[in-house]
Amino acid sequence: MLAQRTQKLIQQVKPDSVMVQANQKWWDSAKLLQYVDSQEEFKNYNKYLDKYSQFDDISYYSNTRMTIFKARLYLYYAMFKLHFMIPKNFTFLKPGLEQKFACEEAEKVGAKLHFLGPEMNLPTW
């Protein structure tokens, strides 16, 4: 499992800093889930954590450009999942168990956490 491999890697390497594709609000909520050890268990809490991982509207684009951008983004996303036969319940646009384990291990080894935000938001765009 990728999440456990990431956790073990941070334990072994003991980096000074760890960057995760999540934000501070997401981590504040996710660290309260103490007995979640698999992605299947973690996905039960996605409805509560999803509000922190949705990308913000990029308001400086016109409405027409934004509509076209979102249509192209979601079409690409759907074609990517179809081509590689990725299950419908899997998404790479929001944080999951791997980020949770990475944050937990970073705190244990004393590494500084850097939150890069969700995939698409104004600070990381």
Question: What is the structure about, briefly put?
Answer:
The chain has about 120 residues and is mainly α. It has 6 helices and 2 strands, in the order αβαααααβ. The two termini are about 30 Å apart.
Tell me about this structure.
- With 125 residues, the chain is mostly helical.
- The protein has a domain at 1-55 and 107-119.
- The chain has helices spanning 2-13, 24-30, 39-42, 46-49, 63-83, 97-109; strands at 17-20, 112-115.
- A two-stranded parallel sheet has the order 1-2.
- Helix 1 packs parallel to helix 6.
- The protein is globular and about 45 Å long.
| Number of helices in the DSSP assignment | 6
In the sheet with the most strands, the strands line up as 1-2
What share of residues are in beta strands? 5-15%
Principal-axis shape equals globular
Largest sheet, in brief, is: 2 strands, parallel
Which runs of at least 5 residues are low in confidence (pLDDT < 50)?
Answer: none
Rounded to an integer in angstroms, the radius of gyration calculated over CA atoms is 16 Å
SSE order, one letter for each helix or strand: HEHHHHHE
Protein traits:
49% helix, mainly alpha, globular, two-stranded parallel ribbon, 125 residues, single chain
What's the structural blueprint in terms of helices and strands?
Blueprint: H1 2-13, E1 17-20, H2 24-30, H3 39-42, H4 46-49, H5 63-83, H6 97-109, E2 112-115
Parallel strand pairs: 1-2
